[in-house]
Amino acid sequence: MKTYRIAAIPGDGIGTEVVDAGVEVLKALAKRDGNFAFQFDHFDWGGEYYKKHGRMMPEDGRAQIKTHDAILFGSAGHPDIPDHITLWGLRLAICQPFDQYANVRPTRILPGIVSPLRKVNGPELDWVIVRENSEGEYSGVGGRVHQGLPIEAATDVSMMTRAGVSRIIRFAFKLAQSRPRKLLTVVTKSNAQRYAMVMWDEVAAEVAQGFPDVTWDKMIVDAMTMRMVLKPESIDTVVATNLHADILSDLAAALAGSLGIAPTANLNPEREFPSMFEPIHGSAFDIMGKGIANPVGTFWSAVMMLEHLGEKPAADRLMKAIERVTADPALHTPDLGGKANTRMVTDAVIGAIAAENA
Ligand code: IPM
Ligand code: MG
After folding, report:
1. Which of 73, 246, 247 to mutate to test the pocket of ligand 1 (most atoms within 8 A of CB)?
2. Whether pTM exceeds 0.90
3. Mean per-residue pLDDT pooled into runs of 10, the chain (358 residues)
4. N or C: which end of the chain has fewer CB within 10 A?
C-alpha cells in the first residue's frame, strides 16, 4: 500500500484550525479508500516560531520537507510581524526555491452557496485561474535608498523572463486543452506596460500555435474584472501574472460566494520538488481561536493535492462530500452567512466520506 508523506505546515491564525481539519478529513478518506495511507509530519513554522527564533522557519527547513510527497499549508501572517516578513520568510521561501511556478485557483459556485452573481442573473461559474508564481511583480527585485529622507527612492521591479512566461503560458494552454470548453483568456496590461507585458503577449501568441484546438483571447486586466462580473459565462481558463492573478482570484472567490471556500495548488509540474496546497483565505486573526473558520478552502485544496498525487477516485469522493455538505445551509460557517463551526463542517464531511456512494 502506498503511503504518502505529507508535510503539514499550519502557519498562523486560522491556518492551524483548518489544517487540523484537513488532516482529519484526509485520514478519513484514506481509511475509506483502503488503497493508500498518509503519514503527516507537522511543522510549527510561522509567526510564533519567528518570535522565538527570529526566523519563520529553520535554516534547513526546506531540506526537512524536500522529499515529502506534498505540503499542506495553512497561512502565513501575524498581527505582530510585518506582512512582507511573514510572506517572504515562509510561503515564498517555500514556493520560489521549490519552483512551484504554477499556482492554480479553481472557482466554482458550490451547491447551496449563493453567489452575488447568482442573485443577479444566475450564470454558473466554472473557472480556473492560473497564476504565474515565480517571478513578475513578486520577483523580490528592488530596493530602498535614503530611507526617511525627502529624497527617499524605492523600487519593486517586476521581472519577467522568456523562460518563466513560456512555461506558465504553456501550462495554462495545456490545462485549457484538458477542459471541455478548451477556452483560455490571457490577461495582460501591454497597453500601459510596454516591455515585459508586450513580451508576455508575444510569447502567448507563439505558444498558442502549438494548441490549435484551444480558443484563446487576450484581455487587459482592468477590463477582465468587468468581464468577470458582467459576462462570467464567457470565461473558462485564465492565465495572468503573479499580481494580476492575485487580485483576480480574490474577485473570483468573492463571486463564488466566499474567500473561505477558495483553494490553491502551488505546483512544481516537473515534480522535482514537492507541490504545496493551501486555502487562499490567509490567517484571519479576527476570527482565530473561535472555531468558526471555514475549512472548505482547505478541503478543496486537499482535493487538488489528491489529484496531484494521482488519487483521482479519492479526490472525486472528497469533492462530492464537500458539495454534499455545502448544499446544506445549516452547515454554513459565518463567512457564508451561516452559524455552523469548523467542527460541524469537518464532522459532516467525514460523515459524507464514510457514507455509501459519497
Ligand atoms: C494569496 C495571498 C498572498 C499573495 C498574500 C498573503 C501575500 O493574497 O495567496 O493570494 O499575495 O500571494
Ligand atoms: Mg491573494
Report:
1. 246
2. yes
3. 96 96 97 94 96 96 97 94 92 95 96 77 79 96 97 98 98 98 98 97 98 98 96 95 97 92 97 97 92 97 98 96 96 96 98 80
4. N
